[in-house]
Prior knowledge:
By secondary structure, this protein is mainly alpha-helical. It has helices at residues 29-42, 46-74, 81-96.
Amino acid sequence: MPHRASTPKRGAAKSRRKPESRYTVALPSAVAGQVRRCAGTAGTSMSKAIAALVRLGLENQEMRKREFFKRLKANLAVDDPGEQDRMVDEFRSLILGR
Length: 98
């Protein structure tokens, strides 16, 4: 659930950055432990570790999507049914991450 966006403090120089949004999330205990270890390794807060992990996950998803369409375009002309089945399995793994 979003919280009110942070606002600059009085007297602070106006930043050209957009204010950061704040969210409250519930993490399963196993995931929270992994994030805690990641934050400790990076020497940062849990919040910053979560933000970095989300950013990396979104970038990874975007790369997978680009790779999917690159391979799909390269293989559209294939007429071999066996090769088509193999490509469907490969694309399924790219999309679902399995």
